[in-house]
Amino acid sequence: MVDVGVLGATGMVGQRFIELLDKHPEFEVKVLTASPRSEGKPYEEAAKWYLQSKMPESVKDIKVVRTDPSKVGDVDILFSALPPDIAAKVEPKFAEKYVVASNASAMRMEPDVPLVIPEVNPDFLDLIEVQQRERGWDGFIVTNPNCTTIALTLTLKPIHDQYTIKRVYVATMQAVSGAGYNGVPSMAIIDNIVPYIGGEEEKIETETLHLLGELEEGKVTPAQFGISASCHRVPVLDGHTEAVFIELEEEFEIDDIKRIMDEFQGIPQKLELPSAPEKPIIVREDEDRPQPRLDRDESNGMAVTVGRLRMDAAFENSLRYVLVGHNTIRGAAGASILNAELINEIIF
Fold it and tell me: Coil, strand or helix: which one is 101?
């Protein structure tokens, strides 16, 4: 078993890490960190459990330590659920010694830090060698993208592999859990839609092109198509919904798009990694699916469900569809764990 820890273990994403790591076949949680006010407390006392599942028995008695490299001891991988401002300061300190699989946004676009979706760009892990050499670290940082970016990019990858994408437009309807337990006041979201999520549109537009780009000689050249995003917070607990519009250079048949999405697999499926869904993309023919409440938990929350796949008659060589992905599982904790499983398989 690989000994692991969770940085920022008391927050919602930290709790997802703990939930998903409970009874994991390869990883065993040994260390939990949080703010100084939680230091020294058993996790059961330090954390108010927000998830529908019960707090795992295996972590209840673990004493929480401060988020400091000198406090975590002998572990192999640290999963980071830290807020971006804290992550920017402390993740590099941890990476001097430890492997950090981060869900935080702070280091994502650093040129020597791999931003990875294992089914999409596993070769970007080659940047680890560059990172360690240039920074003099014994450990390293690997990041996963923004939650909306992950779901979108997974569905774009098989299309990008077979066709030339000219433009992508996406309108998101994002669950409140994406903002954390205290992120959106109830009076602001009940009976309402908020048409703004700070920094979200920029993340989607930048990260998607980066992920679908090319790594050559230690540098990433982003994909060259246009992308425009509009992001909205909606009164849904979990599961981001995205309406996607794509213009291609070539003619295509919609049945071919459905087929390549349905058949799409990546290295996690070939290696049969523990958290990998058998099908990363699930294509539904129902005219009223996907829906977050019905489809977010597909494949333990690790698959993205696509529906309403159809031609867009308003523009030449265009299609549109709707997707749903679980934002705190595939879009956050589950993504970091899958990255770590791949690292454990091919690097350790």
Answer: strand
pTM score, whole prediction = 0.97
List, in sequence order, every residue forming a beta bridge with 49; answer none if it has no partner. none
Specify whether 160 is catalytic: no
Tell me how far CA of residue 203 lies from CA of 56, 262, 288, in angstroms: 33, 27, 29
DSSP 328: T
Asked if residue 290 has a cis previous peptide bond (ω within 30° of 0), the answer is yes
The upper half-sphere exposure of residue 81, i.e. CA atoms within 13 Å in the direction of its Cβ, equals 29
From the list 24, 147, 232, 326, the catalytic residue is: 147
Between strands 99-102 and 77-80, the pairing is parallel
H-state helical runs in the chain: 12-21, 43-46, 57-60, 84-95, 127-135, 147-162, 186-189, 200-211, 254-263, 267-271, 292-295, 298-301, 334-346
Known catalytic residue at 210: no
Helices then strands, counting H and E runs in the chain, come out as: 13, 14
Q: What is the pLDDT along the chain (348 residues), one digit of tens a residue?
A: 999 999 999 999 999 999 999 999 999 999 999 999 999 999 999 999 999 999 999 999 999 999 999 999 999 999 999 999 999 999 999 999 999 999 999 999 999 999 999 999 999 999 999 999 999 999 999 999 999 999 999 999 999 999 999 999 999 999 999 999 899 999 999 999 999 999 999 999 999 999 999 999 999 999 999 999 999 999 999 999 999 999 999 999 999 999 999 999 999 999 999 999 999 999 999 999 999 999 999 999 999 999 999 999 989 999 999 999 999 999 999 999 999 999 999 987
Q: Which one from 160, 210, 240, 326 is the annotated catalytic residue? A: 240
